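ARCHIVE CARD
Drawer: 12
Card no.: 0347
Subject: one protein chain, sequence and derived structure
Cross-reference: see card 0346
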Amino acid sequence: MNKKKIKLLVALIVIIGGIGALVYTSMQSTVTYYMKPSEILAKARDDGAAVYGERVRVGGIVINKTVKGNAATRKWEFMVTDGREDKILPVAMVKTTPNNRILVRYKGIVPDTFKEGVIAISDGVLGKDGVFTAETVMAKCPSKYEASQRNDKEMAKKGAADKKAGRVAPSK
């Protein structure tokens, strides 16, 4: 290979390496980890410096009778706890321990599906006072909506087939 081709190859490698480094560093700053309340509290007990003030994502079931706040002030407080992996059921405060529940404070608009007993995923920071200050709150939609949507699609298909076959009752 001549000198021009070698210089071009080296320049391409440097450019591709630079782009790769930029992508890697930008991804590192936007990655947040998902933790259960018990995991983040255990990590805070073991090594608080690794958790306090660091951006993390906490997810758990919203405990019954802990949601406080209103849409007018957009200030919310609620507690989340670990859930069983196989079932999402409403959880009473007496069924939790200080080791598996965390208080979340959030200022903003909560999703329409947010309520007691749903899975809430909060993105924010844990303070030294043990309160998780969330910048965003998401509520996982219950799977009952998925079943309802499937039933709606099936009914629409049946209705279209009935109409095509002339089995539809005349409208009044």
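Annotation on reverse: The longest strand covers residues 131-139. Residues 31-141 form a domain with the OB fold (Dihydrolipoamide Acetyltransferase, E2P) fold (CATH 2.40.50.140).
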